[in-house]
């Protein structure tokens, strides 16, 4: 009798464990569909994805970028109650808990610390159900309290040398370096480096005590449309043709964030920094299959 009872109990336990395992698998399956813990950024020109080896035609010239990198911070989502809540990042070499460096540096070198850098994906500490949020918000730039610290003592990615000016002005929030690709020896190039200006400090190697006159950090707000809530991994397009809107791209029209520079004013408008709160540089879309763009 004891043997029969033990067999029945074992079968009951096995059945119970099987039901629990099935329930867990169903929950995991639902989370895979609805919850996301990554955001992928995709650089594009006229809806065509770009990378270091890509070229695109703009204003009759063929261009390639040699560096396209930018800092984003203060990432938040708006819930159904209309409240913004922080979406903390998972710390790694590309991001702290609150600041991330995205993009790629295409130059290569025999020196290990100057090898090609590439990262197009944000990783978050926790997954969220995108269906319960209506908007995504982040800052293009580095917060003032972190922007002017000694980069040698900062955690990665705030210690990347080619994304830093000097202590007084801090980091380059957005850096785009492009070169013309043609068979002619006299080739054109163009640069856009966004960062803070008008920063008062005793010297270039000292930290400002008050925020800079032109902080040049801009808030980006993206609507999470119903079509983006159905499934799949969210992605954000970085639209270069929108960045170039109203601007002639040539060496003479490069911008180093000077507010008296006409090219800079056009670029500032296109990223939503001045005159207009709207911007078209970043656009929230979706991709049906996750793809790795991070190395």
What are the salient characteristics of this protein?
295 residues; alpha+beta; nine-stranded antiparallel sheet; five-stranded mixed sheet; 4 helices; globular; disordered N terminus; disordered C terminus
Q: What is the topological layout?
A:
Layout: H1 2-34, E1 35-45, E2 48-49, E3 56-58, E4 61-79, E5 84-86, E6 99-105, E7 117-119, E8 121-129, E9 133-140, H2 144-147, E10 172-180, E11 189-195, E12 218-223, E13 233-239, H3 240-243, H4 262-270, E14 282-287
Parallel strand pairs: 1-13
Antiparallel strand pairs: 1-2, 1-8, 3-4, 4-5, 4-6, 4-9, 4-10, 6-7, 9-12, 10-11, 13-14
Q: Which blocks of ≥5 consecutive residues have pLDDT under 50?
A: 2-9, 28-33, 288-295
**Proportion of strand residues:** 25-35%
Radius of gyration: 24 Å
β-strand number: 14
In which range does the helix fraction lie?
10-25%
In round numbers, the mean pLDDT is 83
Instruction: Give the topology string: H per helix, E per strand.
Output: HEEEEEEEEEHEEEEHHE
Secondary structure tally, helices? 4
Structural class: alpha+beta
Largest sheet: 9 strands, antiparallel
Quick one: overall form?
Answer: globular
* CA distance, first residue to last residue: 62 Å
């Amino acid at each position: 009798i004891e043997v029969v009872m033990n067999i029945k109990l074992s079968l009951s336990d096995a059945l119970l464990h099987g039901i629990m395992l099935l329930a867990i698998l169903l929950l995991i399956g639902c989370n895979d569909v609805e919850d996301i813990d990554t955001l992928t950024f995709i650089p594009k020109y006229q809806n065509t994805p770009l990378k270091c080896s890509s070229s695109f035609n703009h204003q009759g010239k063929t261009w390639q970028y040699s560096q396209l990198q930018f800092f984003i911070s203060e990432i938040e989502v708006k819930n159904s109650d209309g409240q913004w809540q922080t979406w903390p990042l998972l710390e790694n070499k590309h991001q702290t808990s609150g600041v991330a460096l995205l993009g790629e540096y295409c130059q290569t070198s025999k020196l290990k610390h100057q090898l090609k850098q590439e990262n197009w994906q944000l990783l978050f500490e926790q997954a969220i159900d995108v269906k319960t949020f209506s908007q995504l918000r982040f800052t293009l730039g580095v917060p003032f309290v972190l922007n002017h610290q000694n980069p040698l003592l900062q955690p990665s990615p705030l210690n990347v040398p080619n994304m830093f000016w000097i202590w007084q002005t801090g980091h380059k929030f957005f850096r785009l370096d492009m070169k013309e690709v043609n068979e002619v020896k006299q080739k054109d190039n163009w640069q856009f480096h966004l960062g803070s200006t008008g920063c008062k400090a005793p010297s270039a190697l000292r930290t400002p005590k008050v925020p800079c006159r032109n902080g040049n950090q801009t808030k980006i707000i993206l609507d999470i449309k119903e079509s983006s809530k159905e499934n799949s991994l969210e992605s954000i397009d970085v639209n270069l043709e929108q960045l170039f809107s109203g601007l002639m791209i040539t060496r003479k029209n490069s911008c180093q964030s000077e507010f008296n520079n006409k090219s800079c004013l056009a670029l500032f408008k296109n990223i939503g920094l001045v005159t207009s709160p709207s911007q078209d540089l970043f656009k929230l879309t979706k991709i049906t299959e996750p793809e790795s763009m991070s190395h």
